Amino acid sequence: MERVTVFVWNHFTNDARVMRECTTLSENGYEVNLIAIANKKIPGAVSYEEINDNFKVHRVPMYPAVLEYYLKRKKRVTLLTAASTAVLAPLLYKYSKSGLILLLSSLTLTGTVLKNNQLRKNTIKLIRSLRMIKKGYQLQADIYHSNDLNTLAQGVICSVLHDSKLVYDSHEVQTDRTGYNPTTIKFVEKSLVRFADETIVENETRAAKHEELYGYRPKSLHNYSALYDINNVRDIDLHSMLGIDYADKILLYQGGVQYGRGLDVLIEAVKYIDNGVLVIIGDGKLKEELVQKVEFENLTEKVKFLPKVPLEELPSYTKQAYLAYQVLQNTSFNHYSASSNKLFEYIMANIPVISCDFPEIKTVVEKENIGITVDADNPEIIASATQKLIDNPRLRDQLSRNCDKAKLKYNWGNEKAKLLDIYKSLSN
User: Fold this and answer.
1) How far is it, in rounded angstroms, from Cα 197 to Cα 51?
2) pLDDT tens digits for 333-343?
3) Which residues lie below 8 Å from residue 265, measured CB to CB, with a gap of 6+?
4) Burial of 64 (0-12, 13-18, 19+ CB in 10 A)
5) Nearest-5° angle of CA 234, CA 240, CA 244?
């Protein structure tokens, strides 16, 4: 049985894509060890977990132990440091000038790291990466699998040390993400990607972009949901839970509450919609700002928020929607080229979509006739498409039936064969 070590730069408590890939490998003759990040504040993000007989999860500490101790007991550490320095400094000055210089240099360096927010973050990331490398080296895999650029260095080092194969699984267009320096990212990715024996991206649009950047075309592997019958999923009363009138339709967004997802535009759109309530399920940096916006504009009866729901429970919420949104904004090529796992989650639940008109998403929505594509920057256009489906339940139900057909095509059961073919070629 070949051994595979997978790296992810998250807590691995809600990563459906990586869970599907690792489970598939573990069920098809591979021994899988996944290295993630532990977090004492998050249930499930424990240091060790067994998913099945051939799939184990190892989580490295999120923070260095010394830093955790300092953050919990700042005053005590400061007093002890001051007292110790007051005692040691005169002794070292008398007996060991070099020792005094070393002590003062250490204190200065430590103080600089703790006070400088960016330096502290980078130091923490470096230590975390080194722990991943150490664990990955100990596990000694035949194939290393790095998910995204922030774990590629770990995979490169471990694969070189053990003369193993390396898979680079890029879930995003790394050089064109909001908030990232494209020149720096391209330099880093280009330097590391040459060590990969196989590269995977989400779709053909992104494969073409990767080829343009680095001169070779990677394999594409879509992030489709597992096939299931939504009618067998447990029901919940979302109307009652959120205090929504049963005459109003639930208009759903589920996923990260982040910039560029069109959530501010949806909140503007809901002002023009009758008989519908926007429900946003998820967490993220933008959430507090959106909650304040809704309260300031007196839209609390038109917009409801729920926290992130565990993956295994999410379909029970999704199926309550009348329609759902995937209205990414064209803030980067990364968004423009997305296939979006949300789209396939909606399809799997037989929920019609109002979507942006970006190429990969538009192709699925219009080819399978499962919703309406719109200019996602225009709240009135989004509202008009939404009202059209609210006022025409027969059209909505036809789109829902089309979703039920489309999911037989767009599901992980079909797509996983590509992953297994990639691994078979590496094994051979």
Assistant:
1) 27
2) 989 999 888 99
3) 327, 329, 376, 377, 378, 379, 382
4) middle
5) 120
Tokens 């990232």 map to which residue? 180
Q: Is the CB of residue 219 less than 8 Å from the CB of residue 282?
A: no
Rg (CA), the chain: 25
Residue for token digits 């959430």? 287
Cα 104 from Cα 301, distance rounded (Å): 59
- Please report the pLDDT score of residue 107 as a whole number: 46
**Structural contact between residues 281 and 347, judged by C-beta atoms closer than 8 angstroms:** no
Under 8 Å between Cβ of 355 and 369: no
Q: pLDDT by residue (tens digit) across 125-177?
A: 888 999 999 999 999 999 999 999 999 999 999 999 999 999 999 999 998 87
Structure tokens at 136: 């990955």
Rounded Cα–Cα distance for residues 4 and 105 (Å): 43
Region 50-55: mean pLDDT is 97
Q: In what side-by-side order are the strands of the sheet with 371-374?
A: 303-306, 276-281, 249-254, 323-326, 353-356, 371-374
Long-range Cβ pairs for the range 135-142 (8 Å, 24+): 135/35, 135/58, 135/60, 136/5, 136/7, 136/35, 137/161, 137/162, 139/3, 139/5, 139/33, 139/35, 139/58, 140/3, 141/3, 141/4, 141/5, 141/33, 142/2, 142/3, 142/4, 142/427
Q: Dihedral angle at the C-alpha atoms of 373, 393, 302, 234, nearest 10 degrees?
A: -100
Backbone angles phi, psi at 401, to 5 degrees: -65, -35
At 308, list the tokens: 């992130």
Strand partners, 252: 279, 324
Specify the pLDDT at position 77.
44
341, 32, 328, 17: which is closest to 200 by C-alpha?
Answer: 17
